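[audit] Reproducing an earlier prediction to check determinism. Same input, same settings, fresh worker. If the tokens differ from the archived copy the diff job will pick it up downstream; this log only records the rerun itself.
[audit] input (154 residues):
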Amino acid sequence: MALALVAGATAATALFSVRVPLSVAATATGDLAVSAQWQQPTPSWGSLYPGSVTPDSVLNVTATGAGQTLRWNLEVSVSVAADFAPHVSTQLWAGACGAGTSITATGYAPAGGLALGQTVPVCMRLTLSPTAPATLSGKSLNATITVHANQRGS
């Protein structure tokens, strides 16, 4: 920062300097791949009746890659057959079912992000509204789970 002062016929100059040490760390970029595997056999949620809930199902999600400082966050979405969509609510947690950190539409991103190789258990629970039309009774949800691992800064 430089500051110059001029007053009348006399000139004065003052120079200010600030030095701050910065930590330097190597940064490496790389590719990010995501894998997901059910903790138990693949769930077959089958038919739901109004007011019923799927059994809790846990999907282990892991991101791998070739970067030393690469961090990631997680997005999970669940879609169901079109006729069910307005009547099904989905709950997602990172960690224990019902007690872990809720995964919202913006995803799961702990402070600093997730490290490569870190596995996140994702618990999911779907509920068919008690006011769902009787025509949905006994039909399959045809649920599709989509998982995204998004690279982020640390």
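[audit] rerun output stored. Observation attached for the diff report: DSSP finds no helices and ten strands in the chain.
[audit] end
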